[in-house]
Amino acid sequence: MRPLRICIIGSSRFPIREPFAGGLEAHTHALARRLSERGHEVTLFAAPGSDPSLGLRELAVEQMEPDPGERPDTSIPPHWWMQEHHAYQGLMLELMRTAHDRFDVVHNNSTHHLPVAMADVVPVPMVTTLHTPPTPWLRSALVHASPRAVFVAVSNCTSDAWAGTVASRAILNGVDTERWVPGPGGGPAVWSGRLVPEKAPHLAIDAARRAGMPLLLAGPVLDAAYVDREIRPRLGDDVRHVGHLDQRALCELVGSASVAVVTPEWEEPYGLVAAEAMACGTPVAALDRGAMREVVVDGGGVLADPRDPAALATAMLTAARLDRGRVRRTAVARCSLERMVDAYELVYEQALERPREVA
Predict the structure, then answer these.
(1) Per-residue pLDDT tens over the stretch 133-184
(2) Helix (H) or strand (E) holding 268
(3) Structural Rg of the chain based on CA atoms
């Protein structure tokens, strides 16, 4: 397709760089990098400290410490909320003034409500990716969303969850199958992701012990209280937390595992860690929540009933015996970065073809 000038709005809280804080940051990085490699001019607005190779413009996330003379106001949101609000408000006002001369399309890849609420002030088409189930702030912003705005969801499950609020098409997240390469397998089970309650790594530990399989945990500690309460007491010789790894080290770890365990305790919007594991040829044992059944398909792994405490352990033992070559082929066919970027390019072109005025 013809080269486009693409503005991508990323996270203001977590830098878009390795090691990634989560799937949203990894998705943003891969999308911006591959669009640039295809000849598009990409500008990424994201948190300070993001990867400068992505055409970075750092969001102005100002430190807003209260003035000693200010009257305390218990009704205002926390300071981090205000910092994010002002950063995105400043960006949207900047785009209102300059986007027509700088960009062909804006891709909102953040989960903040302001880019959605203010989309109508931007003089070029805006595409928003829905990365989460409906949240109050984002849903309320859609009341003010531009009738010209285009919405994409990261799975059919997420699209269905938003269907009562906004129409969206599903584009499954992709992984770079040239970077996530097959590994030998045969090692301990692995769990990767953010160590937070909704990702529930404690369930992976319990299942691994029930299955008699050693387990390695990899990922950032983003909820210290949860980790102190549920994870640290469960660690031992057979279960270790190996830290927050960059992509290369994580690929080696996942590729050496006999099985990857995915344990969402919410309606998982996509499950990027499952696609990454499958790209390494490592079969997945996952709780059947949210979009997991859209990712873990065609011999890529085994889904477990989240209501049955013993089911995940059984799924781990069964998945570990699956053919790793077939697992890899499934990932290449369904979860590739190329397929995802092809689909987004088509969405950009369709957004550009839509009439500017709505009758």
Answers:
(1) 999 989 999 877 888 899 999 999 999 999 999 999 999 999 999 999 999 9
(2) none
(3) 21
